[in-house]
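WARN no homologs supplied; continuing
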Amino acid sequence: MKKTISCLILFVSLVTTLVLSSINSPAFANATDDVSELYETANKHLQNGELREAISVYDEILVIEPENTDTMLMKGIALSNLDRHKQSMKEFYKVLEKEPNNVSAMIGMGVGFGSFGEYKAAAKYFDGAYMLMPNNHVVKNYHDFAETVIEKYPYNEVEQPEFFGTVETVPSWVKNTAGWWANDQIEDTEFLTSIQFLVKNGLLVIELSDTEELTNADNADRNRWQFARYLDRIEKTVKEDLRYIEYPNPSNDVIKKFMRDYVVWNFEQQIDIGNSAFPDPTFELKDDGTYYIEYKIYINKQPHGLPLDHVSTLSSSFKHWENEEFKATDEKPAKIHFVITNSKQDANLWVTWVVRDIGENILGHANLGKGIIEVVLGGYGCDGNFQLFDVETVETIMTHELGHGVGLKHSSNSESIMYPVIKETKYAYCLLDISN
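OK structure emitted
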């Protein structure tokens, strides 16, 4: 026969929390003291969400060290977080000129192209990053995005500049340059730039040792100029085509969806009321001498279009606690079983995912024994902007809070899932969560 579990285990109406461990700013290598101090200041601005202030300081550094790729990268990330994707891509492009295998810059370029709806161009960068770091969770999320979105949204791809691909014929600008040079309309250095282009692409074999440094610099400037014009054409085409764009990083859209129907996704009123109105879970003592405890769970839906499926991964949290063996107050063994219900009135626990601020560095909370379980979907601890957590991190938080939901308190064992501090939070789409 089934009875309420209140006679077996004492439950307290208490809200418990899981907190986030502190995050250190990235270190700066091979810099002078002045630049190092500026870099630290800029990064603090970025971590605090003061993106424009961060960009201003990054610009100061680039005046001192124009080729500082670390600073270019961070400036690009700050610009990307402000949705200034054309400017951010120029920074990422300059980084990739010097460090072709910089995965963060590659992902940044892909995010920029994807934010304009140029999904094929985005996919090239995401694929390249995936080849270099196939096991990185951020890279995998963007790679998965590229695989699904190209077929989903057909569009007119903007023609790429010639320097992006393999050149098999002499470009028209080279022919024009030669004619202008022959007629004394341009300087020798401009003509040598076109010759260097032909040499670089295997269309002309010639030794240019005396002018190599000059022509390389000119060629880089020309490529940057062409890339900027390419971005101008993309921006113009996007406006003319009235493209519907699915953004590679959906974090900001998720906030909008949650805030639009705030009451639907947030149970904070019930949290404030407490858990006394919730029915107690039921139990049955079977012939093997074990109590089998049944928790009815009401699972709140996720907003439509949320890219990471946390409802499906909740089953892993269920299995974690169903595989554990507990002891009742009379020392008999006890096992827990979860049953999903569509009725809030019958449920012992309500589960939902939220994006609202529930306290500094707090990732989730729950009533002890029965009531509400809320798990935060993301935070501001990566780059100053709201960023969604990776599925693995959300699952860890959910398993912890579900433990509170079935009556467990915090553990002092740092290896326990019930330890009050999570040592590592992974962000699903944050560029700073990529390690080069």
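Residues 63 and 99 are 20 Å apart (CA to CA).
OK
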